[in-house]
Request: fold
Amino acid sequence: MKRYPKRRASEGERSRGKPKACPFCADNAPEIDYKSEKLLRRMVSESGKIMPRRRTAACAKHQRALARAIKRARMIALLPFTQEPLP
Reply:
């Protein structure tokens, strides 16, 4: 009987593991506020872009709140719109 080689799973077929829990849904989670600059800076990339859900591990509800808070903080100059990359 002829044996066929095992094929590799394509990218869409691979198991992704257990999804991360939203850090803001926990009981003692920090509140998302446009004035909490320290929290918002962690959710923005080095170039100043808002990080996607797959990086922040936030649920859809809290990702929207994060984006809203970051945009408000930018408007009142707590966060920069863009940052110059280091040479």
Summary: The radius of gyration is 19 Å. The mean pLDDT is 86. The longest helix spans residues 60-75.
